[in-house]
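Q: Sequence in, structure out?
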Amino acid sequence: MHKTFQLARKSTAFPTVTASARSTVLRAIVALGIALSPIALFGTPALLGQTPASDPPVPHRIHLILKDGSYQIVTGYRVKGPNVVYLSAERAGAEEIIPLSLVDLDATHVWEQQHIPGAHPEQKPTGRSTIDPELLKEEADRAALTPEVAPDLSLPEQDSVLALDFFQRTTELVPLAQSAGELNRNTAHNILKSAINPHSSAHGIVELKGFRSAVQLHVADPVLYIRVGDDPSTGGGSTFKVDTQGASGNAPTASAGGSPNSRYVIVRADVRTDSRILASFNLPQLGAARRQEDIVETTADPLPGGHWLKLTPREPLSFGEYALMEVLNDRDVNLGVWDFGVHPVAPENRDAIKPQPKRPFQLDHRRHQ
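A: Exactly. Output:
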């Protein structure tokens, strides 16, 4: 009975499996499991902290923010002179260039602090970023050469004296040409120095051709801007003296601008048949409480950067012909004046500079939130 049972057990038992066969079966099961469910068996690469060898690392994507509120997605950028060179993430890393004046580096650095881990480990996001002081200085110097005096209206580099006018609901800048005797009207700022005797009777010191200036302003309180020369000690250029009647013996010297040490007054012209006459006045009495006839004094305010002076008349100008005159000191004036008229219904000035609204740079970009 016992023997029969042993034979039956042997007949129903599983066949003996060798080690080699077991290894083959296990490999097949593992391969099948990987094919069916890699995530269930091993988890995602992110969970394991591993990146598949076939996928290259993804570079950081930075929002290069522009001043119009839009942005470019880039993988890197650098400032090179007046431009910013960047690698476009949307165009397969193509290197592209955009003017530095259109890029908001402040906002870009703030975005990096807030979105890229470890971009600035030594700093905590404060809403303000640290920019290279040299870069800030260069940007400030460029802006100071052509400051904005009204919305979308900036002073140009090529003119020396301009008036802020208002014509048909539009603010404009009108260049004023320097006029006097033999002065070269094409230069920026000439000086023809003349001494005025305060004890002598009033007499004409400048005679302008024509009964009317080529420039006619449309407001009674025009603001004037005068470019200041690079060397204040020269008074805006080499000078020489002439007699009080304005007769000159030599040609004047031109310079880039006036002197910040000068004072400026607006003189009302005596209109004749074919000329306008500017009379002498008492220089030491400028600034006194008593107003001198036909003289309107101005308040001078230097603009940031020191390249321009803003001149504001201390009282409104009535209809008529005028000239801006430079007072060099308590004895001398510059006979090279800048003439203009005030006439509200005059036509628009030919060389008026109009506002230029800023236009966004032509790129495929997205709005920065």
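The first strand starts at residue 62 and ends at 65.
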